[in-house]
Amino acid sequence: MNPMPMTRASIITLLLGFTLSAWTVRGDDAREWTPLFNGKDLGGWTYFLRDSDAKMEDVWSVKDGVLICKGNPIGYLRTKEDYKNYILKLQWRFDPEKGPGNSGALLRVVGPDKVWPKSVEAQLHSRNAGDIWNIDKVKMTVDPDRTKGRRTIKLHETNEKPLGEWNQYEITVDHGTITLKVNGLVQNMATDCEEVAGKIALQSEGAAIEFRDIKIKPID
Hints:
Blueprint: H1 8-30, E1 34-35, E2 45-49, E3 60-63, E4 66-69, E5 75-79, E6 86-93, E7 104-110, E8 118-123, E9 132-135, E10 147-148, E11 151-152, E12 167-174, E13 177-182, E14 185-190, E15 199-204, E16 209-218
């Protein structure tokens, strides 16, 4: 039995279906994660240290897919590119033999390199991951009941894992809203934030810390 000939309308409908399916796939692909740290070297990153004689390799190194920060001299590693609206994921841990530590992820870093540049800090100080620190008077609205000076304390008790185990930050910077999620739990939020494109930075703040699986997904 011969198949029925296709009409012009049915062909258009079929092509439209293929087009929509292809657009959906491409749309999903466009929202895939992009590594910020390739696990091999510090390509795509630059640095600033308060000690002008210090070099990047004095503080930062890469081994077995892990980004290692010695913690001194004080400063930060930052992206060369600017990012405005995105979801940032990273994993971090402190060495149990060296004890609790301090660091932070700086968001929408703008202005000259210094300690510390204008930005919003997603805190990584042990037991305080999820706190927000406002650096250089970034415009934002936070819960006044949880805010003391530049610090907005997280919503819940710490849910960090024991020293030596990997934790995950999921940081959403969505136009005027910044949300911090620690190990799957929303710990903080700021609204009405100043909407600017800026760098992403990781602090060297006096303590050894390790990072891995640093990736970003843009928000349209």
